[in-house]
Structures are given as C-alpha cells and as structure tokens.
Amino acid sequence: MVSPALPLSVAGAAFGVAALVYVVVPVAFVAVWGFMQTWQGLTGTTFGKALLGLRLVRVPDHRRPGVAAALTRSALFAITLGLAGLPGKPDQNGQSGWHDRLTGLGVLDVTVGANPLGARPQPPLRRVTADRSLNRVHSPVPVPTKKRG
C-alpha cells in the first residue's frame, strides 16, 4: 500500500506542493487499501498470499470470504495496530489471530492440501519422466544426415 504513497510524497516534497502530501497521499493509500481488501474478499488472496500459497476462506464452509468480512478483518487489524493478528491459541481451522476469530475467517495453506477455491493451474517446470537419465534432444529443424556405406 506504500507503493503509491512513496513516489507521491517524494514528488510533493520535490515540487513544494504540500497539498499533494496532505491530501493525495492519504487518498491514494485508502484507495489501494480498499482495492486490496475488495480483491481479497472476492478471490481469497492478495499478492503476498498468492506468492506464499495461502488463501483466506470462511471457516465453516471454506468459501470466499466476501468483501464485508475482508474489510472487517482488515479494519480490526488496523484499529488494534496489529495486536489482533497476534495468535492466542491456534486451532485446526486456521484461525490464529483475534481478527480471524471475530470475523469467522481463516487462512489455509493450499500448497500442502486441496485448494477450496478451485484448482490452481500450475504447468510443470520440466517434464517428469520415470527415466532420470539424460534425455535425448531432437532438433526442431530437420537436419540431413549422410548415409554410410
């Protein structure tokens, strides 16, 4: 969320425009926060969660959290200055912080189990074969070969 705020702050300081720093930067910060929480509510993931293979879901039915629940969860976290995110006693549902317990949401690690929000298409980085020896490489361009004797 700092991404729009930092260049705008630098531009405001460089050009001596205080209104840019006092008005535009907070509006940009809130707009990016709102976008990210809406995205998380609709998809169950953010940039960081996607990189780590995590999904935010409703605990009872493992469905997408919804925009209202994602906004409430994030607001609880922000209002308590992050203290709501401290784990009390983690449970088997993925709820570890108070902001998760109060909103009925939980974070699942989909890298170790099924993804409740649908399959993630992941093409393999290399073809897996039973034979672990060197693979024969064929040229895509036909190369004429000389016939011997």
The biggest beta sheet, please?
Answer: 2 strands, antiparallel
**What structural category do the secondary elements indicate?**
mainly alpha
Average pLDDT rating? 77
Low-confidence stretches: none
The total strand number stands at 2
In whole angstroms, how far apart are the ends?
72 Å
Shape: flat
- What is the gyration radius calculated from CA atoms? 24 Å
Proportion of beta-strand residues: 5-15%
Number of domains in the coordinates? Answer: 1
DSSP summary: helix tally: 5
The largest sheet has its strands arranged as 1-2
Helix content: 40-55%
Order of helices and strands: HHHEHHE
Protein name: RDD domain-containing protein
Pfam family, one: RDD
InterPro entries: RDD (IPR010432)
Subcellular location: Membrane
List keywords for this structure.
149 residues, 5 helices
